[in-house]
Amino acid sequence: IRWQTARQVGGDFYDIIRLGKGRLGLVIADVSDKGLPAALYMTVARTLIRALQGVESPARVLERVNNLMLVDSHNGLFVTAVYAILSLEKGTLTYANAGHNRPLLLRAQTDSIEQLARGSMAMGVMEDIKYEEHVITIEPGDGLLFFTDGLTDATSPSEEMFGEERILQIIQQVRGKDVCQLLETLDEAVRDFRQDAAPSDDLTLLAIRRLAES
Q1: SS3 of 162, please?
Q2: Which residues pair with 31 in a beta bridge?
Q3: Rounded to whole angstroms, how far apart are CA atoms 186 and 167?
Q4: 105: which of 51, 62, 114, 119 fits an S-S bond (Cβ 3.0–4.6 Å)?
């Protein structure tokens, strides 16, 4: 995990929730602002997601959180998020995407990179949004990268954006390395790209890898 705020407090959020029965809940989210208002709104989102951890469908969780957040919505804030439930035994990942950056699946067997399915509207915009649920299998050796737009939208002094193509190139460079090396390399690349300028947006990276079978 890598997490950096653009101000003293931020609106990015990640969570790893032990759900029992050999399952983990994985969350990454981003409020449409920075600073204290975004941090407070994100606290509401995190609390609601954790309160609904008994619901076994990620899509239903996001739908309920969306409707509940509308009660506290103010100043036009909204939240993008991916919520996934990972079966540690089977390697299956069930997920839903509420308007967030598409996670990247790193396939070990084919040496390829797949984008997970595109998501629907962000939470906190309108009532009764329906989110689609997807299921994939993370095979032995596969990795998965979640990130916020603080990565893709990072800008250089010449106002060039970091973009997804650089992410893909970096993943290829560290192919076969562990996820800690991937996160460290991405973090260093963004800092070099900004040339040590202060970040303009919060940045969060979350990566997992299924161990190869011995």
Answers
A1: coil
A2: 79
A3: 7
A4: 114
Amino acid residing at 33: D
Show pLDDT as tens, one digit a residue, over the chain (214 residues).
899 887 777 889 999 999 999 999 999 999 988 888 888 899 999 999 999 999 999 999 999 999 999 886 667 899 999 999 999 999 999 999 999 999 999 999 999 999 999 999 999 999 999 999 999 999 999 999 999 999 999 999 999 999 999 999 999 999 888 999 999 999 999 999 999 787 878 999 999 999 987 4
Q: Among positive and negative, which fits the CA dihedral 175, 180, 181, 183?
A: positive
For residues 122 and 24, give the distance between their C-alpha atoms in angstroms, rounded to a whole number.
23
Look at phi and psi of residue 31 and say left if phi exceeds 0, alpha if psi is from -120 to 50, else beta: beta
Residue 24: which of 2, 51, 56, 48 has the closest Cα?
A: 56
Amino acid in position 62: L
| CA separation for the pair 74, 1 (Å, rounded) | 30
DSSP summary character for residue 78: -
CA dist 137 and 150 (Å) reads 27
Locate 94 and state its tokens: 């069930």
In the numeric block, which tokens belong to residue 178?
Answer: 């562990």
> Cα separation of 203 and 194, whole Å?
13
